Amino acid sequence: MANSACSGGIEARADGRAPSELRALSIERGFNVYAEGSASVRWGNTIVHCTASVEDRVPVFLRGSGGGWLTAEYGMLPRATNDRMPRDVSKGRINGRSSEIQRLIGRSLRSALDLRAIGERTVWVDCDVIQADGGTRTASIIGGFVCLADASRGLKKKLSLAKLPLQAQVGAVSVGKVRGAMLLDLNYEEDKSADVDCNVVMNGKGEFAELQGTGEKGFFSRSDLEEMLLLAREGMQVIFALQREMLDLSREEEEIFDGFF
Amino acid sequence: MANSACSGGIEARADGRAPSELRALSIERGFNVYAEGSASVRWGNTIVHCTASVEDRVPVFLRGSGGGWLTAEYGMLPRATNDRMPRDVSKGRINGRSSEIQRLIGRSLRSALDLRAIGERTVWVDCDVIQADGGTRTASIIGGFVCLADASRGLKKKLSLAKLPLQAQVGAVSVGKVRGAMLLDLNYEEDKSADVDCNVVMNGKGEFAELQGTGEKGFFSRSDLEEMLLLAREGMQVIFALQREMLDLSREEEEIFDGFF
Amino acid sequence: MANSACSGGIEARADGRAPSELRALSIERGFNVYAEGSASVRWGNTIVHCTASVEDRVPVFLRGSGGGWLTAEYGMLPRATNDRMPRDVSKGRINGRSSEIQRLIGRSLRSALDLRAIGERTVWVDCDVIQADGGTRTASIIGGFVCLADASRGLKKKLSLAKLPLQAQVGAVSVGKVRGAMLLDLNYEEDKSADVDCNVVMNGKGEFAELQGTGEKGFFSRSDLEEMLLLAREGMQVIFALQREMLDLSREEEEIFDGFF
Amino acid sequence: MANSACSGGIEARADGRAPSELRALSIERGFNVYAEGSASVRWGNTIVHCTASVEDRVPVFLRGSGGGWLTAEYGMLPRATNDRMPRDVSKGRINGRSSEIQRLIGRSLRSALDLRAIGERTVWVDCDVIQADGGTRTASIIGGFVCLADASRGLKKKLSLAKLPLQAQVGAVSVGKVRGAMLLDLNYEEDKSADVDCNVVMNGKGEFAELQGTGEKGFFSRSDLEEMLLLAREGMQVIFALQREMLDLSREEEEIFDGFF
Amino acid sequence: MANSACSGGIEARADGRAPSELRALSIERGFNVYAEGSASVRWGNTIVHCTASVEDRVPVFLRGSGGGWLTAEYGMLPRATNDRMPRDVSKGRINGRSSEIQRLIGRSLRSALDLRAIGERTVWVDCDVIQADGGTRTASIIGGFVCLADASRGLKKKLSLAKLPLQAQVGAVSVGKVRGAMLLDLNYEEDKSADVDCNVVMNGKGEFAELQGTGEKGFFSRSDLEEMLLLAREGMQVIFALQREMLDLSREEEEIFDGFF
Amino acid sequence: MANSACSGGIEARADGRAPSELRALSIERGFNVYAEGSASVRWGNTIVHCTASVEDRVPVFLRGSGGGWLTAEYGMLPRATNDRMPRDVSKGRINGRSSEIQRLIGRSLRSALDLRAIGERTVWVDCDVIQADGGTRTASIIGGFVCLADASRGLKKKLSLAKLPLQAQVGAVSVGKVRGAMLLDLNYEEDKSADVDCNVVMNGKGEFAELQGTGEKGFFSRSDLEEMLLLAREGMQVIFALQREMLDLSREEEEIFDGFF
To answer: pTM for this structure?
Structure first.
C-alpha cells in the first residue's frame, strides 16, 4: 500500500508508517482441522484466531421461524496483553469490554450472511486474541468474514443451495486522531493516546454495517468524521483485496463477489 | 417543536409525529432524597430513573493519579418491557446488551466531567429503566447529565472549587431509517422495524462524544448518515434547552453553560 | 388518621407522629403500561414499585397439578439507600436480606390468591424499591396486593371465571419497640434503634398470614407481643381502606371484598 | 416428658406421639476435634451437625467498633432428604430457603451472645443437615447454642473475662396446626400437611428472640397463636433442660444459667 | 493387623503406628434412612459420610445408549479442618482440589459397577467430609464402594437382574515417603511433610483402577514406587476384609465377591 | 525417531506409527512478544500455546515466607475440539476436567522451579489448547517447561542470581493400552478406545514428578504398569532432547542441564 499524503499531523508514527498505511496484514486460512471455517489474522503484533462452527439449531426466539442466526464470541488469552490479565472464568463472568466487542462482531458478520437461506442453523464465530496490539475487533471481523465464507461454502454444498448464502463482503478498520493527526489502523500505543477513535465496518460498496466513533478524550467534529471515513475507505480496499485473495475464489464465486462491489 | 418537512418516507408515524419530531420529553429533577443528583426522565412511554452518587475513591488503575472517574450502570426492572424479563441476578450475570449500553453511557458522561478537578473520586451514574419504549440509552444520557450537573454543584461546594467541574453539556438522541423514511427519536415499534439505527451523543457545539450507527437489516450509505446526523442535530436543540431549563442555572452557571455552545 | 394515646414512651417521634400514626401513605395504581397489574406505593420517604405479571406456565413441581403459583421478587435500586449499594448482579447473587424478604412477600400474597382457580399459571409480583426509608417489605405487600387484584380481574375475564380468583384482602405493617415506646410503622431511623421489630401480615378478619417478630437487641415478652399486635391491627384498618379505595371496586367486587372482613 | 391433653384434634399422630410430645431428642457434644464448640443434634430422624468457630476479625461494618459478631451458615447434604437435591454450589448460589433459615439462626444466637465482651471477633456457627425430617432450623438453634456456650468458655479463658460472654440461654421449637389439631415439634410429614406453622425461639424467661408464624394454607387467628405459644413453651422446658445437662455446667456456670431463667 | 518391618526410616510415627499399620478404620453402614446406600467411614480422626442415590436418567451424552452412569461429588463441611474454610457456595464455585478428588472417586467407583446392567440410570455417590485428618479421598472410595454395593442390591431387586451389577470390589489407600521412611495411610501431619504421596485404588486381584503418585517436594524413583505399591497392597487386604464384613454378604453374594479376588 | 519393536499388539496404528513412536513434535519458542517465556507446542494435530508470566507477589498463604509460587491455568478454545464446546465463562465456572489438568501441570512444573530462589514471586503458566487431538496435558507440561526456563533466565538476570532458579528438567508423555497393545503418545482416537491410560511426568534422571494411571475400561496389572513406564521412558528421551535444543543453551546452562540427568 502506497503512502498517502499526511493528513494533518507532522509527527511521524513510531513504527514509521504513513498516516494512511496499514500495518502488515496476513491471513492464514484453514489453520484449524475441525472447524467449518478458520482464519488466523496477523496484523502487526496483533494475532487473532477465528473459527466458524455450524450448529443445527437456533436460539429459542427463532425456533419455527425457518431462518438462521449468527453469534460471535470474543475472548483473550491471559497473556495476550502486556500485563497478564485474569481469565474471565476466574471472575465467573465475561468482562464488559469483551461483551461489547462480541456484539459488534456478531452484528457485523450477520449483515454478510443470508440468514433465510441457511434455514434453522446457527453459525458461531469465535474470535480469540492470541496477542493484542490494537485493532483486535477489526481483525476479528476481517478474519471472521473469511471463516464465514468457508462455512458458507460448506452450507451451500450440504444444503444443495443454488448460491453461496452470502449477501456482502464485510471488513473493518480503525481510524483515529492522535495528537492532531488522522491515522489509519491504530496500534495499541496510538490507540491509548488517541483523542478520537473510530471503528468502521463496511461492505464493498462503501456502505456501513457499523460505525462506532468515540471521543476518548473529548469530542470530534463533523469534519473529523469526514476525514476518518475517507481514511477508513482507503484502508478497506487493501483489506477486501486480501480477503478475496485468501479465499481463492472459483470463477462462479468471483461473480458473486464482484456483485458485492 | 415544529414539524420539519418529511425527509423521504410518505407513511405517517403510528403516533402521528412528524419525522423530525421528538416524543413528549420531561425531566423530574431531584426525585431521590439521598442521591447527590437525580433525574427521572419520561420520554413518551419510556421512563428512566437516573441517580449520581459520589464515592471518595477511585478504581485501582487510578489510585495515586490525582484524577477521578465516572462509571455508569444500566439496568431494567423485570416488567419494564412488554413481556417480563428475568432479572440479571437470576442468571448470575449482567446481559450483554446492558453491558454494552452502560459502557456507552459511561464514556458519554465522562466526556462532560472534568476528571482532574474532582480529585480521586468516582461518580456513579445509575440508570434504571422503569418502563421501556425505545430510546432508553439516550434517555439515560440525557438524565444522567442532569444528575451529573447536580453532583458537580455539590462537588464544587464541598471541594471549594473555583468553577463547576464540567467541561461540556452532553445529550443524546436516536435516529433511524424506517421503511425508507428517516425518523427522529424512534419508539420501540419503529426501532424494531428500522433498517438503520443510529445513536448520537453530542455536545452543544454539535461535536460528537459518541456515534454508533448500525445497519440492523442491511447497510447504510454516506448520504443516509448525513441525513441522520442532520436530524439528530435538530433534535438535540430541544433536548439541550430542556436540560438547561430543568437545571435552573444561576447567572454564574449560565455563563459556563453558554461556553458549552 | 387520628392520634391514638401514647402507648408507653414519652419521647416524641422525630417526625412528629403519634405512636399509632402511619406515615402518609399513597398508592398510584396502573403506573406501568405493560403489566397485568401495577402499583407504586409511597409511604413517607419509602417508594416501592410493584408489578404483577401473568405467565402461562408453572414451576416444575406443579406441572400437571392443574393449579397455579405466585412468586415474588424483591430488589433495590443501587441508590435507594443513603449510601449507594452495589447491585446484586455485580456480586453474582441475590443478597440474603432480599432473599428472605421476597419469600415473605411471596407467601403473603399467595395466601390471597385462589391458586386452583387460575389453572397452571404463575403470577410474578416484582417489588422494586426506588427509595428506602423503612417498611419496604410491608409496602411491597400492600402494593403487591393491589397489583394482584388487578391481575385477578384480568384473569377472571380471560378465563371466564365466575368470580375474582381472590380469597382474601391482604396487607402488612410493621410495629416496634423503640426506647421503651411501642410505635406503629417504623421509619429507617426508628427501625435502626428498635429493640424489637415485628412485621405483621393480616387479612381483613384480623387473622395472620405471616407474623415475624425479632428481638433485634434482646428479647420481647408476651405482653410486648400483645401490644404490638393491637397496634398493628389499628394500622391495618387504614391500609385496607386505602387499598379498597384505590382499587375502585365495582358493586359486584364490593360484595366479594366485604366477604373478606 | 409426660403427654399433655390433646389440644383439639382427635386424630393420632403417625408416630404415636401425644400432641405436646417432642420426638426423641439427643445432643452429642464435642463430636468435632477442631472446632471451638460442636454439637450433633438428633431429633427423631433429623440430624444436624453444628460447629462454632472463632475468628479474630469482624465484618467491615464493625471494624473499629470494639464489638464482635456472630454469623450462622446453614446447609444440607445432598441426600439429607428423601430425594437427592443438587448441591448449592452446582447452581453457583445458595438457595432462598437456606438463606432465610441461616438468617433466622444467626439472629437467634446473636441474642444469646454478649457481643461487646468478646471484642472484635466473629463466631461462625455452621449448621449442616445430615438428615432432614422436619425441625432442622430449630435443631440448628438448639445445637448452635450448645456450640456457642463451649466457644464462650474458650473465649472467657483466652480473653481472661470475668464471666462467660453469654447473656441468655436460647432454644427453639416448632408448633403447627395439622388437620385441626395443634401439634408440637412437627416432623416432615406433619409439616407438609400443616395449615399453620410457627417457629418459636425463646430464652429461659419465656421471652421471644424470634417468632415466625406462617399460614401455609390459609390464615391463623389470635387464639391459634395463643395455643401455639403455650405448646411451644411447654416443649422449651425439655429442651432447655437437655442443653444444660449436656453442657455439664460448673457450679459457677450454674449460677449464670440460673440467672437466665 | 500385624506390624510389618520398618521400611527405611527409623523415626517412630507420632501416633505410634508401625510404618505399614493402618489407623483404626470402621464403617457404619446404613446411617442414612433415605439413601439407596450409605456408609460413614471413620479412619483415625477422618470422618466421611457417603451416600449412593439412584436416579432414573443419564447425562445427555448417554441418552439412548442403553447404559448407565456413576457420578461422584465430594465436599467438606466448613469446619472439617483445623481452620474453618469458607463454603464453596460462598465463592460461587467448587474449588479445584474438590473437583480433582471427585473425578478420581467417580472413575474409581465406575470401574466397580456394571454400567450396562443397570440400564439408563445414574448412581450418584456423595462423599462429604465431616472431619479431615488425611486420607479423605481414599476413605471416600472405601465408603463409596459399600454404598454402591447396597445400591446394587436394590437395583438387582428392582430390575430383577440375574446377578448383582458389580464387576469388582474396589478400595483405596494412601502411601507416602516421609523423612525417608515409607509409610502406609498418612494422616494430615504426615501428608504435609511427605516428600512423595501416592493414592492407590485397587481391585481384589491387586490390579489398579487408579494410581496417582506425586512428588510433593521433589521426585520419586522406580524403587520408591515399588516400595509404595507393596505397602499399599498390604493395606488393601485389611480394607477389603472390612468392606466384606460390613456388607454382611449372603452366600450367593459371597461367591460373586470371591470371584473378585 | 526409530521404530521400536512392537510391544504386544499386532494391529497397526491408524496413522502408521510404531507402538513406541511419538507423533511429530515441534516447539516454537518465543511466539508471544509480551510474556517472560512462551512456547507453542505442536504435536501431531494437537496445538497448545504456553506462556509464563512473572508477578511480584504470592498467594496469601505464602506472604512473608520469603519463597515463591507457580500456578498453572489450562483452557481450551471453543473449537479446539471436533464439536464446538461452550466457553467455561458461559457457564460461569471452570469445568472439572480443566481443573484437574491444571493442577497436574502446576504440580509438575513447580517441581522444576527453585521456589526459594525467586523470592516472593509467582510464575503463572498459561496453557491454552488451540487444537486438541490427545496429549494436551503432556504437551502443556513440555511447553510449560520451556516457558519456565525462559522466565528463569529473566529472573536470574533481574534478581542477579548466581544460577538459574531451576532444579530439574521436566517433561511428560502419555502411554496406554489400546486393544491389547501398549502404545506411546496416544492421539484422541486411540485415547478414546484405550483400556488403560497413563500420564507420566518425569525428570531427566528417570524419576517421577507425577504418575497418573487410569483403568478407563477396567483395571491394569503390575506388568501393564511396567510396560507403560518403559515405553514412557523411551519417549522422554526424544522430548528432553527437543526441549534442550529449542532452549539453545549457553555453555554455562548446558552444565546445569547436564546435572539434571
So the answer is: 0.93
